[in-house]
């Protein structure tokens, strides 16, 4: 047995022990598919965070935590007679080979294209019913990610602008509609929210046409904002004052100072 096989077998054995009704861990025993989901989402973002911060030792640990989530779901599936870890691994292996016929197929075999293969898979899953190219876009995706995915799927069948100009114009149009709703004497919050959603959707489309991932772009913007604001806090503390004691003009001036220092560095 190889080192990899031994490591996987050890992890699966540990998971079975944790779920043992008599000798297992009380917390692990009471978990269900639904209760594990929040932990899976959290572990996924911790993997992303470790990669973005280039913390490679931490990434190893975070990937282990994420792998444990898969093992946990597989153990639950095994206990309920649904599937086990081996079937999960076989399913992804089959999918990868099926979607790469130019690599795993007969020599010289041409791939029909990623989207075409996925479309055929969606058709097979539909059991003869009507299908949509949007069928398997998870509703649980973060909103920005799902918007980009929906747009990309539609673009794959030609429902998309072929130049940047109309995309940018749509952003301006949606921004104007937001401002119109927000400046009425009797503001209807639901209408503002609807128009704001349209604006965000248009911005996602702009991001896609610029070759940027909107979720990643916003994460980076969040990180940059947090870094700058923490520096403002430091400068305020050094002046032996609190944020509440500073005027907006003073804080704005500190913000500009921080930005200028970043350019110098």
Average pLDDT for all residues: 91
Q: Name the helix and strand elements from N-terminus to C-terminus, one letter apiece.
A: HHHHHHHHHHHH
Instruction: Report the radius of gyration as a whole number of Å.
Output: 25 Å
The total tally of domains equals 3
Describe the sheet with the most strands.
none
Which CATH architecture of the largest domain would you pick? Orthogonal Bundle
Shape: extended
| Number of helices, counting only DSSP H or I runs of 4 residues or more | 12
SSE diagram, text form:
Blueprint: H1 3-18, H2 26-29, H3 33-52, H4 56-79, H5 85-99, H6 101-104, H7 114-125, H8 143-155, H9 164-182, H10 189-209, H11 214-238, H12 248-264
Helix pairs in contact: 1-4, 3-4, 8-10, 9-10, 11-12
Characterise the protein shown here.
It is a single chain. By secondary structure, the chain is mostly helical. 72% of the residues lie in helices and 0% in strands. The protein has three domains: 3-97, MazG-like (Helix Hairpins), CATH 1.10.287.1080; 161-210, Helix Hairpins, CATH 1.10.287; 216-264. The protein contains twelve helices and no strands. The N and C termini lie far apart (53 Å).
């Amino acid at each position: 047995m190889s080192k990899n096989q031994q490591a996987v077998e050890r992890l699966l054995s540990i998971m079975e022990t944790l779920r043992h009704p008599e000798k297992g861990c009380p917390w692990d025993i009471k978990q269900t598919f639904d209760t594990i989901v929040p932990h899976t989402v959290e572990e996924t973002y911790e993997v992303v965070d470790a990669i973005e911060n280039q913390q490679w030792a931490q990434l190893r640990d975070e990937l282990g935590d994420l792998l444990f989530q898969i093992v946990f779901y597989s153990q639950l599936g095994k206990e309920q007679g649904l599937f086990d870890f081996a079937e999960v691994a076989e399913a992804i292996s089959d999918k990868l080979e099926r979607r790469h016929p130019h690599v795993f197929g007969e020599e010289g075999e041409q791939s029909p294209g990623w989207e075409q293969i996925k479309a055929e898979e969606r058709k097979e899953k539909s059991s003869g019913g009507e299908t949509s190219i949007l069928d398997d876009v998870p509703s649980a995706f973060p909103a920005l990610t799902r918007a980009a995915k929906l747009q990309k799927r539609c673009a794959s069948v030609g429902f998309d602008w072929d130049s940047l100009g109309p995309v940018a114009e749509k952003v301006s149009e949606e921004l104007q509609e937001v401002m119109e709703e927000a400046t009425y004497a009797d503001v209807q919050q639901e209408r503002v929210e609807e128009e704001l959603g349209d604006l965000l959707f248009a911005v996602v489309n702009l991001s896609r046409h610029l070759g940027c991932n909107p979720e990643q772009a916003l994460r980076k913007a969040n990180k940059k904002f947090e870094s700058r604001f923490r520096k403002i806090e430091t400068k305020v503390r050094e002046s032996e004052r609190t944020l509440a004691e500073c005027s907006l003009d003073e804080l704005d001036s500190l913000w500009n100072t921080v930005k200028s220092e970043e350019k110098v560095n």
